[in-house]
Amino acid sequence: MTEQKILLVLGGTSASLDVVRTAQEMGVYVIVTDNQENGVAKDLADESATVSTTDMDGLLRLIKEKNIDGVFCGPSEFNIQNTMKICKLANLPFYVTKEQWDICSNKESFKQLCRDNDVPTVLEYDVDLNSAHELSADDIKYPVIIKPVDGCSSKGISVCYSGDELKQAYDEALEFSESERVIVEKYIENGGTVTSVRYIANDGKLYLSLTGDTYIVDPYHRTALISAVTIFPSKHTDMYVKDIDERVQAMFETIGIKNGVLFMQSLTEGNHLYFHEMGLRLSGGLTYQITETANGVNDLKMMIRYALGGPMAYKEEIELIDPNLNGKIAASLCIPLKVGRIKS
Q: pTM for this structure?
């Protein structure tokens, strides 16, 4: 009889809920920890602890005491970095190195990686914000979009139509940048469409697993530059596979990606895609629920298995991967809310 594996999950919030649920479905014993007494993921787990996800000494003691086989977390970039640190200290498997993470989580370095590998990327401006209002049409063409180079979740992003607006938006973008750096790009006015591509990496080989077209909430008044609905697969899938896919696979080989998952986001202009950011992680959109229903592929299960010392994917799982979802069409609808009280 196979001994039950024990998985430590960092973070007790809803971001970890699917990780806990899926691991348990796989027959894994799950312990959830963070510095809070309660949490929805802790309520579901087999066991919980109150060791902070930043307390490396405490986590090491917990791993030793509970004979933990692997550590994982949800899509929280904060806890991904904590998981990366503790796995290195405890000599446990993790899918990404710090060097790879630093390249892929920084918009500036990711775009340079794209340029180095002939992968199309959004035009970027080198702007001195102190003299932004003095820039001529030869220096910069408005509108532009400004954002923190290391931000996430669409925070600190503004569309600007003048130098004065750009200077004003700079301070807001800076608030959401840990490195205190921002990036200024050409704003592609396409009705608020973002095309994403998702990959599964297994033993050094990348497989295109899903594509999608996302439409943002308010592309015209720009009160909310966040996702409203995503349609899978993308209408650009055939073009992407024909013209770009091989270059992207080769690009990630250059930084040594072996196992794991990743996604890239691009802006569409006509029949062209221009990439501007990526995530070397599972996305928060639970897309594995779509792929598992359509073609039997669940990359969350793969990631949990890898974290516990197993293979990333089995041969039969790889054979099921199909970015066209076996001819099916799926949609994901997001309902954005503001902080406040609902009156009625």
A: 0.88
Q: Which CATH number describes the domain made up of 123-186?
A: 3.30.1490.20
- Give domain limits for the chain: 6-94, 101-106+110-118+190-333, 123-186
| Confidence at residue 225, expressed as pLDDT on a 0 to 100 scale | 53
* CA 67 to each of CA 3, 62, 169: distance values in angstroms, whole numbers, following the listed order: 12, 8, 49
- The radius of gyration computed from the CA coordinates of the chain, to the nearest angstrom, equals 21
Could you tell me which of 201, 316, 218 has the C-alpha nearest to residue 261? 201
Of the candidates 190, 181, 238, the one whose C-alpha atom is nearest the C-alpha of residue 214 is: 190
Residue 202 pairs in a beta bridge with 205
Write a three-state SS string for the chain: CCCCCEEEEECCCHHHHHHHHHHHHCCCEEEEECCCCCCHHHHHCCEEECCCCCCHHHHHHHHHHHCCCEEEECCCHHHHHHHHHHHHHHCCCCCCCHHHHHHHHCHHHHHHHHHHCCCCECCEECCCHHHHHHCCCCCCCCCEEEEECCCCCCCCCEEECCHHHHHHHHHHHHHCCCCCCEEEEECCCCCCEEEEEEEEEECCEEEEEEEEEEEECCCCCCCCCCEEEEEECCCCHHHHHHHCHHHHHHHHHHCCCCCEEEEEEEEEECCEEEEEEEECCCCCCCHHHHHHHHHCCCHHHHHHHHHCCCCCCCHHHHHHCCCCHHHCCEEEECCCCCCCCCCC
Per-residue pLDDT of 109-164, as tens digits, reads 999 999 999 999 999 887 765 555 555 555 788 889 898 887 665 678 888 888 88
For the segment 183-192, what is each residue's pLDDT rounded down to a tens digit? Answer: 899 888 888 7
Percent of the chain with pLDDT over 90: 69
For domain 6-94, give the fold.
Answer: Rossmann fold (3.40.50)
282-298: pLDDT as tens digits:
988 899 999 999 999 99
- Between residues 300 and 270, which one has the greater pLDDT? 300
Q: Identify the architecture of domain 101-106+110-118+190-333 in CATH.
A: 2-Layer Sandwich (3.30)
